[in-house]
């Protein structure tokens, strides 16, 4: 098997998609080595998305530590997802594809995709689990306002896993006209590498900003991991810095790396939540963006090599960190990075950098209700 | 006239051996037995629902292999081919799966999400699609085990209103690179569609429509398969 990351990765897809993946891979290789591609992506980042995003010192959140927050929550559309969506939209135009399909969990990737499709005049269809549409209602309305068609997925757990399967089935059925704008570093090759490279701007900027302000690198870098795109983009900036501890934080009920096994899901071999027979097991997280039984294959490889340590945070820990950041720093984080924030206090390191991958507006209803129940 | 092959797809389950026997008695030349997977990317709603029901009734790999053996006892020498997804083989062990399937009566194997070129040591029936390049057609034909499965549509399994216009060109391209038998599947659901597909290909695969008939029992399945057989032999 053409594995990409040690024994992980590959292309476990129906034959119908193989020529499209070959075509995407060729276009990606050409773009990767083309300065004009990166100039266009960089210009869009600066003038449309709001890059570079700031690095904020959190003075009060974690006493005894100096915590820097990489503010992807301040990016246009409110999360790091736009970095990937913009880059893939530029690529889709190079491929001549006029229609885009995407999956979304929390709705952030769906909003980012709908946004770039509006910007470039592309037709946009977003698949979203019916359960996620309920818990992320404002994002559904944003996508529709942006001109996207949001198709509810009513099968299985009605969350991100099923939405991803339906998006891939749509792609299989419309592959000649359609680009599949996958939202995380998952899926068949070349997607995991493509998404990492488009998100690597987060880690590159964060490293330079930290060096400039602190005069040194952070001792530890944290990011939450669902599919793993904000984490892989953040870690990409520090992988070569051996002295920097890298920590990925999964939702305890969706810990594909911490409690999963090697398996195949959505076109790649990775670490997934599955039973003895390879059947996918349901994930459970209050955070729709982490509620996924798989993870990018590169994370599985980074776990095995020991370069990144993967830990978990429970719903309750994430909710308390969500409230704490709001009260101590005046920043309402998304529930996804709240998982990473929840592990900051446990670290031995004092100089810590956290990727604040998105803002929490979308989560207010759900989080406040859950906090009320927790504190009752 | 050369007899056109009729392949019927059934989902593994308690009724599968009896259904398979009914299908073979009614004129099926080969039975595909679905080993269900929780996230079947290549399948439309009918196969997906059947897979969900099978999983809910406990049809995991071990039970599917037992079902395969029980089916073998009912259908004599008729070829039996499990059709499944890579996740099951990954969990069970690739070689062990192939060996155990054969030991339980399988003639070959179909893995819907393991395209030609990947794990060539795993002997299986390869699938090609209208999007396949000529180069990939040749590779698949070279690697395939006995016959080549032509996916007639750019899409997932399921009933369609009409035979895909993509089949003719796909058959012509496949014949240009290989002389293996070509069986057409995906979207073939009526006797008329089967007859039209068999004008072009050497056989047809009927999946979703067979599952729908099988839901009504062995008698209904036998009547449906007989109608397909009659259309192919006419």
How would you characterize this protein structure?
The complex is a heterodimer of chains A (376) and B (234). The mean pLDDT of chain A is 96. Chain A starts with 17 loop residues before the first helix and ends with a helix. Chain A has helices spanning 18-32, 35-49, 81-95, 108-120, 130-135, 137-145, 160-173, 191-214, 229-236, 297-305, 315-329, 335-342, 364-375; strands spanning 55-58, 66-71, 99-104, 123-129, 149-153, 178-180, 220-225, 245-251, 261-265, 268-272, 308-313, 351-356. Chain A has 376 residues and is an alpha/beta fold. Chain A is built from 13 helices and twelve strands. In chain A, α4 (108-120) links the parallel β3 and β4. In chain B, α7 (167-177) links the parallel β6 (148-151) and β7 (182-185). Chain B has a single domain (5-233), classed as Aldolase class I (TIM Barrel, Alpha-Beta Barrel), CATH 3.20.20. Chain B has an eight-stranded parallel beta sheet with strand order 4-3-2-1-8-7-6-5. Chain B has helices spanning 16-25, 45-56, 61-74, 86-92, 94-103, 134-143, 167-177, 191-200, 208-214, 218-233, and strands spanning 5-11, 30-34, 80-84, 110-111, 127-128, 148-151, 182-185, 203-206. Chain B has 234 residues and is of the alpha/beta class. Chain B has ten helices and eight strands. In chain B, α1 (16-25) runs parallel beside α10. Chain A binds chain B through residues 1-2, 10-20, 155-156, 161, 165, 168-169, 172-176, 262-267, 269, 274-280, and chain B through 37-39, 41-42, 44, 48, 52, 55, 60-62, 85-92, 112-116, 118-119, 126-133, 136, 140, 151, 153-156.
